[in-house]
């Protein structure tokens, strides 16, 4: 049985959970990190010596680094679908996954922290505008890339859409004025039609505490929503 270790509302854990669900995998979620603890145990160090989440165990095989885990799951369980069989198409998928981590994730997550995770009276409008501009600049490149494609690698959904889809959800749901990005917006709407995206990415923004599950409340109390 596949084990996924982490908090299901943590930005680096969400891509792994989304991938596992796109692939229809059976897995157990081992709550870890933050107040769920477990990262400082010797048993966890055997799985991830960095003592960070996410990590997985697939039988005797342990793996860490979120996007490496997404690639592994897609290569092993989604060869020819989520992991493109054409080696050059797979390289393009890999390229956009790396780009998501190196260019897009940072400005968007800091924009998220500066807005959603900062009390309204403590928010810094200049910092927010700067991060919004940086996020927009990065996503403009993705917008150009998507001008003639439904998904990052072409006509079908692949692992390349997973990290960027997680970034897009945060970007489109922080309260800032966003200049238009028509192709990214159309792609985001396409992702929003996918049940696994709706269930595991779109529901963790924490807008209405009355509707949260006990798990969401536990995660929110440690500020991870
Ligand atoms: N590059 C790593 C980053 C992992 C990371 O920063 N994980 C954070 C949560 S998003 C963590 O483990 N924080 C400690 C904790 O949650 O207790 C990855 O993508 O997996």
Automatic annotation (TrEMBL):
Residues 1-81 form the GST N-terminal domain. PROSITE patterns: GST_CTER, GST_NTER. It comes from the Bacteria. It holds the Pfam family GST_C_2. Keywords: Transferase. Its EC number is 2.5.1.18. Coiled coil: none annotated. Residues 86-221 form the GST C-terminal domain. SUPFAM superfamilies: GST C-terminal domain-like, Thioredoxin-like. It is an enzyme of class 2 (transferase). InterPro entries: Glutathione-S-Trfase_C-like, Glutathione-S-Trfase_C_sf, Glutathione_S-Trfase, Glutathione_S-Trfase_N, Thioredoxin-like_sf. GO terms for molecular function: glutathione transferase activity. Belongs to the GST superfamily. This is Glutathione S-transferase GstB. It comes from Ruegeria denitrificans.
């Amino acid at each position: 049985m596949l084990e996924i270790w982490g908090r299901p509302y943590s930005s680096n854990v969400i891509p792994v959970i989304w991938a596992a669900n796109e692939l229809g995998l059976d897995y157990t979620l081992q709550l870890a990190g933050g107040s769920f603890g477990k990262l400082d145990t010797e048993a966890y160090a055997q799985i991830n010596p960095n003592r960070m989440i996410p990590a997985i165990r697939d039988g005797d095989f342990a793996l860490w680094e979120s996007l490496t885990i997404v690639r592994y799951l897609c290569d092993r369980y989604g060869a020819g679908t989520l992991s493109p069989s054409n080696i050059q198409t797979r390289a393009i998928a890999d390229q956009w996954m790396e780009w998501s981590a190196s260019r897009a994730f940072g400005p968007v997550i800091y924009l998220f922290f500066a807005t959603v995770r900062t009390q309204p009276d403590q928010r810094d409008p200049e910092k927010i505008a700067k991060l919004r501009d940086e996020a927009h600049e990065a996503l403009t490149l993705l917008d150009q890339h998507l001008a003639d494609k439904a998904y990052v690698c072409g006509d079908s959904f692949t692992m390349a859409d997973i990290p960027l889809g997680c970034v897009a959800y945060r970007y489109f749901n922080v309260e800032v004025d966003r200049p238009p990005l028509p192709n990214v917006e159309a792609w985001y709407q396409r992702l929003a039609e996918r049940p696994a995206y709706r269930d595991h990415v779109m529901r963790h923004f924490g807008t209405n505490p009355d509707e949260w599950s006990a798990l969401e409340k536990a995660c929110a109390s440690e500020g991870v929503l």
